[in-house]
UniProtKB/TrEMBL annotation:
Belongs to the cytochrome P450 family. It comes from Fodinicola feengrottensis. It comes from the Bacteria. Transmembrane segments: none annotated. Keywords: Heme, Iron, Metal-binding, Monooxygenase, Oxidoreductase. InterPro entries: Cyt_P450, Cyt_P450_B, Cyt_P450_CS, Cyt_P450_sf. This is Cytochrome P450. It holds the Pfam family p450.
């Protein structure tokens, strides 16, 4: 008899588990930590794309969150969860419209010089020959500074925010720390919005407050939840994209050599990182509003469905040599950023930050090596995110520097 899978195995080494699930059934029953009803995990690529757009799978978490035991105070939960990822049309359409103009390709491209400036400043502080946690020194501060500047949040608050974010992303794995961190962060957002009302500036938060206070259809909980979402989603995926990308290159030195020899492969490499070891383990839950068929199984009304982009992106029915990390593979229609209505609004920003980060690291450092044993690396406990807790490296400067 097969041994049951532990949470530790699923966090630290999920790919063999997902491969077995895909082989047995691309839509498999699962027991969630915070849900007493019947749950399902989607690991197949075709099934994931179908589930992302299925009309009977709702993202209206505000209607169905009562089924999830989050352990949060109702006021805190309301201030966190009334955002566009927890809504269906027409609310989703209305909420997304308020921020979509900030994340257009043109607006994001205009951020490139500032992203480069921040990344350069951070890499200037990395001392050759001394082991450094590249996530702590570079992977985290780059996207958090970018999103804080975009929203209009003081950079001095980023350390506290990182602590809260780590706990919130861990979710049920955080235990008693979750309610404390969630309340601290929502309190912070309320105080921040109060300051912005008194002293508005040329930033996204001031714009959102103006929309709210001018009487548009945006509730106070929707405003605080929008800030919460933009802060968390605006940096977590990019932290993991950068960290996972460097981890893959360190553990696949032949692919690192390919990139050094051909820098034009960097955009392709970013897409392959997203496919092979993407930043999102699982999308937010979907709730069945009617009985439906998916992947050959019947999902009943009231069931919860978790779609795993991490698993779907290694489906050999969709990707040739799916278990091979190939920086020359190019764009493959992976689902690392989701699919359909809830496709990640910040995907262009994450891609740009990842591209600039990788290009600068290749340009600056002649060697990049892991500064610890491979089995000492630890993946962060989270049901949603896939990222390393730390990535110690040692570097030397490129000969041209």
């Amino acid at each position: 008899m097969a041994q049951p899978v532990t949470q530790e195995q699923l966090i630290q080494d999920p790919h063999p588990i997902y491969a077995k699930l895909r082989e047995d059934a691309p839509v498999s029953p699962m027991q969630m930590m915070t849900f007493s009803g019947r749950g399902w995990v989607v690991t197949g690529y075709a099934e994931a794309r179908e589930a992302f757009t299925h009309p009977a799978l709702s993202r209206d978490g505000n209607k169905y969150f009562g089924a999830l035991d989050t352990g949060l105070d109702e006021r805190v939960r309301a201030a966190m969860n009334h955002h566009m990822l927890n809504s269906d049309p027409p609310d989703h359409t209305r909420l997304r419209r308020m921020v979509v103009k900030v994340f257009t390709a043109r607006r994001i491209a205009a951020l490139a010089p500032r992203i480069t400036e921040i990344a350069t400043e951070l890499l200037d502080a990395v001392k050759p020959g001394e082991p450094v946690d590249i996530i702590d020194a570079f992977g985290f501060p780059l996207p958090i500074r970018v999103i804080c500047e975009l929203l209009g949040i003081p950079s001095r608050d980023q350390d506290a925010f990182r602590e809260w974010s780590n706990v919130i992303v861990a979710g049920a794995f955080a235990g008693d720390k979750l309610p404390v961190a969630a309340k601290a962060m929502t309190d912070y957002i309320h105080e921040l919005l109060a300051r912005k009302r008194t002293n508005p500036a040329d930033d996204l938060l001031s714009d959102l407050i103006a929309v709210r206070d001018e009487g548009d259809a945006l509730t106070e909980d929707e405003l605080t939840s929008m800030v919460f979402l933009l802060l968390i989603a605006g940096h977590e995926t990019t932290v993991n994209l950068i960290g996972n990308g460097l981890y893959l290159l360190l553990t696949h030195p032949d692919q690192l050599d390919r990139l050094r020899a051909d820098r034009d492969l960097v955009p392709s490499a970013i897409e392959e990182v997203l496919r092979y070891e993407g930043p999102l383990r699982s999308a937010l839950p979907r709730f069945a509003t009617a009985d439906l068929e998916l992947g050959g199984v019947t999902i009943s009304h009231g069931d919860i469905v978790m779609i795993s982009p991490l698993a779907a992106n290694r489906d050999s029915d969709r990707f040739d040599d799916a278990e091979t990390f190939d920086v020359g593979r190019g764009h493959t229609q992976h689902v690392a950023f989701g699919h359909g209505l809830h496709f990640c609004l910040g995907a262009p920003l994450a891609r740009l930050e990842g591209k600039i980060a990788l290009e600068l690291i290749l340009e600056r450092f002649g060697t990049l090596e892991l500064a610890t044993e491979l089995d000492q690396l630890v993946w962060r406990p989270s049901g949603l995110m896939r990222g390393l807790a730390a990535l110690p490296v040692s570097v030397t400067l490129a000969a041209s520097r």
